[in-house]
Amino acid sequence: MKENSLEIKKTGTTTVGIVCKNAVVLAAEKKSTLGYLVASKESEKILPLDDHIAMTIAGVSGDAQALARYLRAEFKLYETMHKRKISVKGAATLLSNILQSSKYFPYFVQLIIGGVDSKGPHIYSLDAVGGIEEEKKFTSTGSGSPIAYGVLEDQYKDNMSVEEAKELAKRAIKAAIERDIGSGGKAIDIAVITKEGIEIFTEKI
User: Is 158 buried (19+), middle (13-18) or exposed (0-12) by CB count in 10 A?
Assistant: First the structure.
């Protein structure tokens, strides 16, 4: 019985992060599941944390949303104390430390932190217990990530423009939606992060 109850709580999603020329592109589909129920077709899986950093979420939405609230508060405190914005690496390290400190009662999440700072564009992937990796080109999370990775590995190229990265992110997400039962919805959210700020678009599919 216990094994079956754990099985039904598995959820799916697909998110993507891409480093391109002077920017980061994040993308996610919008389907949210609760066991065998499609709980929402309009879930928001890209959460802005500051005007230069955003996070994609896969896993338990409540855990991810709580982490986003903590991070926004910590970023404001950092800016107040240091008179400057936190770096993307600093943000990812802070999140890693929060996750590691809670490993005995973990947040059930898989996350991508992406942003642009004085050192350029960066993306980091993090697991539920604080494992952190900087990804120099692209990354993907969620149940549809193996399918998305196939597209990204085949079509990514260095120094892509923002438009090229957006198109690649859409292709990767669409491929996952076609073949991963946990990914879906009727639209894809795409965030473009540059030194000017964050723009989030929703494109129907």
Answer: exposed
11 classed as catalytic: no
List the catalytic residue out of 11, 13, 56, 141.
13
Domain count, the chain: 1
Give the pLDDT confidence score for residue 39 in this predicted structure.
81
**Which ranges of 21-161 does DSSP label H, i.e. alpha helix?**
61-82, 88-101, 145-155
DSSP bridge pairs for 179: none
Which of 197, 151, 137, 177 has the alpha carbon at shortest distance from 13?
177
Q: Is the pLDDT of residue 4 over 60?
A: no
Distance from first CA to last CA of the chain, Å, rounded? 39
Report pLDDT digits (tens) over 60-112. 999 999 999 999 999 999 999 999 999 999 999 999 999 999 999 999 999 99
Residue range(s) defining the domain that contains residue 45: 2-204
Residue 80, domain CATH: 3.60.20.10
Residues in the chain: 205
